[in-house]
Amino acid sequence: MSQLRLETYFNDVTALLDQALTGSEIYTCRLNAETSDFVRLNRGKVRQPGSVTQCYLRLNLIDGRRHAEQCLSVAGDLAQDRAAIASALGLLRDTLLGLPEDPHLNFSTEVCASRLVRSPTLPSAEEIIDTVLATAEGLDLVGIYAGGPIYRGFANSLGQRNWHEVRSFDLQWSLYHRADKAVKATYGGFAWAPEVLAAKMADARERLALLTRPSRSLPPGRYRAYLTPTAMEEIASMLCWGGFSGRALETRQSCLFRLKNGDAVLDPAISFAENIAEGIAPGFQDEGFARPDSVPLVRAGQWAGSLVSPRTAREFSLAQNGANAGEAPESLDMAGGKLAAADALAALDRGLYIGNLWYLNFSDRPACRVTGMTRFASFWVEQGKIAAPVDVMRFDDSVLRLFGEQLVGLTAERELLVSSDTYGERNVSSMRLPGAVVRDMAFTL
Amino acid sequence: MTDQLAASFRQLSCDADFWSLRVTDERAEMLSVRKNVVQPPALQVDRGAMLTAYAGGGCGYAATSDLSPRSLQSALERAAGWARAASRRSLIDFQALPVPASSGTYASPDADAPGYSRRDWHALLSEESRQAGCDPRIVDWEAAVETRIALHRFLTSAGGDMTQRYRFVMPNMSVTAHADGDTQTRTLNGYRGLAQQGGEAMLERFGFVGSGRRIADEVLQLLLARNCPTGMQDVLLMPDQMVLQIHESIGHPLELDRILGDERNFAGTSFVTLDMFGTYRYGSDLLNVCFDPTRPEELASYAFDDDGTRAEKAYLIRNGILERPLGGAISQARAGLPGVANSRADSWNRPPIDRMANINLEPGDATLEDMIEGIERGVLMSTNSSWSIDDSRNKFQFGCEWGQLIDEGRLTEVVKNPNYRGISASFWRSLSRVGDAATMQVLGTPYCGKGEPSQLIRVGHASPACVFTSVDVFGGDAP
Asked: Nearest residue on chain A to B262, judged by CA atoms?
């Protein structure tokens, strides 16, 4: 599947569908495809290398207010796929016959075309892996390289065409000292630069050296803490689990319902937005609506808005704002604060430096209370200096409290954290987050 | 379709030492009625192939959704290219491994029996939805089902040929209620906690018909309940919480690839080390846990894993002593330990890794009444709602939808937000009663996540109700 061929293929599929429609039928069709190299590494060696070429079409047939969707894997070659596409269309027609009208059907009828192609040349995965392992010579490195082009397409029978194509890479690795004492690092983007990898590996080596100090086990209690942007990503991910969802808010299931309802307020430094313009997700959503550049969610500690999918908009008489069905941010942007990142340890003074968090879940969703573990390089800090690595600890606290009365400050610098999620396909979401110092965080185990 | 692919496979040429073709063809329907509105059906056809090659001591794979002979040949060459490139730096010497050459078949119960029509399903789901939306405090509810049929075939250059046919039914019922600033959700055995092989007979086993009204009544009780009290006390965990407890604090820690370090960058490592097998006391004498791919209705029963190893029942923990890890043929060779046939991939586009499959806790001899009567002060907890555990699978905290206090051997008031926390290495030693077969349920989840690249796989768990003594229990913050 070459990139040129795939865009042409998608255009050919839509031409086929245009000709196949009858009567008042309308279709929407999405394409999700990628050609990815995945190389697993363990103990500084290659564990499991491979490549995946996959192409899926999601065909939604609409007739009046009846509709159904079929997802099918395809070869990416119309000569081979013609029969399967025709069969899918036939199955959808049969399915529609037995369905009632859908009162919440909502799709874009305003044609809004777009095309974004970002395909810089990457070295071969084999070459990249050789460089990575050479840079980590002598280290217990474990991780994954994922790279190659990702394609997203949308079309409908009203004539809309959208194409989004990016060639990117993501290297996620950990350097282990012993047992669970390790440093995690990432390098992702569009242009591969060996010198950037070397700098990141050198930084990871430095932090790894800190882990050789005797570790400290802290008793449960409340501790002042600095959460790095990577640790903040885990907390933000919990807020994204229905927190900003229009449907979850309307049905009182959002962890941020109390914030929206005015029963809770966050620190004025806290602002969140869905910032599609500065992320890497497509600028169009699954029903063909163009996505606004930015949707404010929390502004200066107060509720500002939610993510509303077309279906939710119809159900609750709201205005859709480009969200997909899951109504989770795909380019979450958290405003930075006034604290220079270089001064974060000084601002912490005495407490926990939390490099990463792990396996978060709600212990009381309406209270936005979350539990989870510290992981990787987390340290005890005395007088603004790293004193010792700490053994893993469980926290259990309300995010409304941590980002409210307990917030000391956010770093001015933010990190762009590209999703490393590869369930089924490589994810195209990202977050841009600062670090945070909190006065008091509850640790329970 | 797979016969054509088998013919194509036999025409492939390659200078690798060994190669294989694993093809999966799955068809699914997702139907749902939410708040009495029939949601648009989502249909799925997913087929593709993975070619794997061993060359020069290395191993590589290439997967494609293009199943033409030319594409398969191209994928095999890519896989062999990866194997040769990896041979210089491979963690494992694949030349030293035996290659799979078995042949055989497997089929789910009722694999070919006619199932409900879409109209039948919509009628059933609509009725359950109608029954669930019975009170103005109920703000959201859904009755749904995923049905899936799957054909998996594995062919090897050593003559192996394994065909396995599956049928799955995975219904879901959930009801959410809100009042006075609090929101509670009740489900039928957890989100997608009802998942079995076979046909619609499972609906009767789990009382799906009538569940809409039943769990609506329960969620309204939760709205009126106080929070679970805090303190060290006994817990009686029902099967739909036991399966999560087994999954997180026995299943994952025993996965051999975690113990060998493959997952340290993502899913994590394990507090279990290679030297523990055969001697380590994992739990009390009452703890008996098996890898069991032979229970027909259980979600992850099969005859061969995705590396072509024949699957058989084996004890992992017997009378509390750790016996065997969850490791497939490749991990067994690396560790020098016997394992089980659990090298599995979630689809054609992901390579096999060590996964759980069916991990079951064997029944004991206590009736449910015995167990309740034996508790002076404790909490019955059912249906998992929250799960979190550290990357070594040791320090955990789990929450349930439903709690009911036990006072002097009697079930008393309902409590909401029951949570408990503990440490795997000591928790299982507090297992004091194991329910009999009448308390047992065969459950599972289609969503066990792991691996780089990541995979969501079907796992089954069967368990009786169990009692644990002196557990750290607490409730929520809600009013």
From this structure: A42
Which chain A residues are Cβ-neighbours of B456 within 8 angstroms? Answer: 423-424
Tell me the one-letter amino acid at A257.
Answer: F
Predicted ipTM? 0.96
Backbone phi, then psi, for B118, in 5-degree steps? -60, -35
Q: Tell me the residue type at A419.
A: S
Contacts of A444 in chain B (CB under 8 A): 397, 421
Query: Residue A158: beta bridge partners?
Result: none
Interface of A with B in 350-379 (CB under 8 A): 358-367, 369, 371-373, 375
* Segment A398-422 mean pLDDT: 96
Considering only CA atoms, which of A341, A316, A402, A425 is closest in space to residue A36? A425
CATH architecture of A3-210: 2-Layer Sandwich (3.30)
Q: Where in chain B is the domain with CATH 3.30.2290.10?
A: 2-224
Mutate to test the interface with A, among B30, B262, B264 (most CBs of A within 10 A): B264
Give the C-alpha separation, A127 to A134, whole Å: 11
- The closest of A57, A113, A30 to A290, measured between CA atoms, is A113
Nearest to A444 by CA among B271, B242, B474: B474
Are B453 and A146 within 8 A, CB to CB?
A: yes
Q: Residue ranges of the domains in chain A?
A: 3-210, 221-443
Per residue in A314-327, pLDDT (tens digit) is: 999 999 999 999 99
pLDDT for res B1: 67
Whether the CB of A341 is below 8 Å from some CB of chain B: the reply is no
Does the pTM of the predicted model rise above 0.90? yes
Q: Which residues of B touch A48 (CB under 8 A)?
A: 59, 61, 351, 353
Distance (Å, rounded) from C-alpha A127 to C-alpha A18?
Answer: 44
pLDDT on residue B477: 80
Nearest-Cα distance to chain B for A338, in Å, is: 32
* Residue B72 Cα distances to A37, B23, B68, angstroms: 17, 11, 6
Separation of alpha carbons B282 and B318, rounded Å: 9
Cross-chain Cβ contact B454/A423 below 8 Å? yes
Q: What percent of chain B has pLDDT over 70?
A: 99
A interface test, pick of B66, B269, B448 with most A CB neighbours within 10 Å:
B66
Helix, coil or strand: residue B171: strand
Of B65, B386, B392, Cβ closest to residue A55: B65
Convert the pLDDT of each residue in A379-402 to its tens digit. Answer: 999 999 999 999 999 999 999 999
Reported as a single tens digit per residue, the pLDDT across A250-301 is 999 999 999 999 999 999 999 999 999 988 899 999 999 999 999 999 999 9
Contact residues, chain B, for A88 at CB < 8 Å: 43, 45
Q: Are A50 and B60 within 8 A, CB to CB?
A: yes
Contact state of A68 with B139 under an 8 Å Cβ cutoff:
no
Three-point CA angle A313, A277, A322, nearest 5°? 10
Are A225 and A354 in contact, with CB atoms under 8 Å apart?
yes
- Report the run of H or E that residue B121 belongs to, with start and end: helix B118-132
A vs B: CB pairs below 8 A: 254
pLDDT confidence band for B479 (50 / 70 / 90): very low
| Number of residues that this document lists for chain B | 479
Confidence of residue A374 (pLDDT cuts 50, 70, 90): very high
Please state which of the four CATH numbers 3.30.2290.10, 3.30.420.10, 3.40.630.20, 2.130.10.10 is assigned to the domain occupying B2-224: 3.30.2290.10
